[in-house]
Amino acid sequence: MTPHESDKVSLMLEDRLERGLWIALLMLVPVSSSPLLPLGSGTLIRPLAFVPAVMLLGIAAARLLSGQWPKFNPDRGCFGLLFIFTSYVIISGLVLVAFLPDSPFKGQTPLDSMLRGLATLAVGIIFYAIARHKIRSVDDALLAEKYLMIGLGISVALAVFQVVAVAAGGQLLQTAQSITDVIAVRTAGLTSRGQGMGSEPSALAYQITLLIIPFLVARSVSRQEFVATPVHRKVALRTLMGSFLVLVGLLFAGSRFGIGSAIIIAVFSTVRAVLRGRVFAAVALMGVLALGAAGTILLRDQQLGAGSGYVVRVVPDLVELSLPDLADVDQTAAISDLLSISGRVVNGQAAVSMWVDYPIFGVSLGNGYRYFGKYVPDWAIDTILFAPQSEGGFWLDPYAPEKGNAKILPLRLLAETGLIGTMLFLLFAFNNIFCRDYGDRYFGALRFAAGAALCLSWLNSDTFADPAMWILLAFCHAAGHVQEKSFEPRRSLVTQPI
């Protein structure tokens, strides 16, 4: 074998290894909190997909040393905005931390906390860079969507098994719990809702909302597989299969927030489809909602998944409320307890109060929990919301590893990075999604559904480390580029002189 042939074979094996690692990353996305990553009891988000991501990063570094530069689609300033945001967070954080006493809280100094916060951001940036590199064309997008669907399909199947095991009890439940403990870190055992391979049911619903629903909406409205692809009848069958996966996943996860997000996206997408003359797509979307309602009713009698008391019992109680009830303090407290949002209201109010005192630069990334005890509202302390054995009680305990957090990404950004950091990050995120729309039906529906899914997911999560958000941003960026590229020949024909 000649040296040239040897180099060619070596490059081919390297490409196959890289492709295999990328597929592994996509299929491991559902494992959001792996016990295989020993990061301490206070770290719940431990994406197993980070392992192949680091290996891909190593291959990229080796190629850089040999003079091979990675290829990306034209950036539209996204990497630049991300670099500015990261630089701002580092510089402002170091300045703020320099004026804080170097005293540990929950085992960490202010600098330690900032470095851990930056580490989660670095994890997210790595996922984003790899996804931008791997998703550049229609074929790349379809391959990524395929293996994401397979990975999430396995997670949904496990969620079904978990719920069935809970209903059956006995040895089957023990088996399901043992399997779950190997895959995911969580603070409690299996209940009436399935969590799949995620850390909790809401994690599975979060992944479905970001990585399946936007593409299903786009396909149902356009009957295209992706941007700049022809209308095809087979798309309807694949969309039906994907819709079934979403329904089963959300019904057995029983996440109120996930179900609510799916309903909001479906309803607004239906209205948008009707306004654009896509009546059949609107009927199909409403049919999916009807099937979801029927599934909830079927699960209701067994008190499982979306039919459990956690989800269903709030509906009649809320329907019976009147406007005067909302002005009654006792009734308002009952509603808050009914919806299990008391803790989230406390978190949000504390984050907003923190931002009011530190409006421009925040308190530095990763250090918001350090100020939580100072800004937690009095009404929360005076009630049972933060009892000694509650999650909030652990947040206030200086010796407990659990950390108080906003649970809403925009509020966390405001509290920890201030107005400047928040605006930079939001500009980066929406710059990936809202590329100019040249009339491609798939792209128009995708960016609408993706923007809605992203905003809704931010109301229920505040971490940078989960790959779902970054992969969706890379998908949208690639969709915008493919649309612009497909529009160029038509644009050149229009501008060509006669």
Quick summary:
The chain is an all-alpha fold and 498 residues long. The chain is built from 22 helices and no strands. Helix 8 packs across helix 11 (279-300), helix 16 (342-357) packs across helix 20 and helix 20 (409-433) runs parallel beside helix 22 (467-495).
Question: How are the SSEs placed, and which strands pair?
Answer:
Layout: H1 3-28, H2 50-65, H3 78-98, H4 110-134, H5 138-168, H6 170-183, H7 201-211, H8 213-222, H9 234-253, H10 256-275, H11 279-300, H12 309-312, H13 314-319, H14 323-327, H15 329-338, H16 342-357, H17 372-375, H18 378-381, H19 391-396, H20 409-433, H21 441-458, H22 467-495
Helix pairs in contact: 1-2, 1-5, 2-4, 3-4, 3-20, 4-22, 5-6, 5-7, 5-9, 7-9, 7-10, 7-22, 8-9, 8-10, 8-11, 8-21, 9-11, 10-11, 10-21, 16-20, 20-21, 20-22, 21-22
Explain what this protein looks like in three dimensions.
The protein is mostly helical and 498 residues long. The protein has a domain at 11-70 and 135-312 and 437-487. Helix content is 69%, strand content 0%. The chain is built from 22 helices and no strands. The protein has helices spanning 3-28, 50-65, 78-98, 110-134, 138-168, 170-183, 201-211, 213-222, 234-253, 256-275, 279-300, 309-312, 314-319, 323-327, 329-338, 342-357, 372-375, 378-381, 391-396, 409-433, 441-458, 467-495. Helix 2 (50-65) packs across helix 4 (110-134), helix 8 (213-222) packs across helix 11 and helix 9 runs parallel beside helix 11 (279-300). The radius of gyration is 24 Å and the shape is globular.
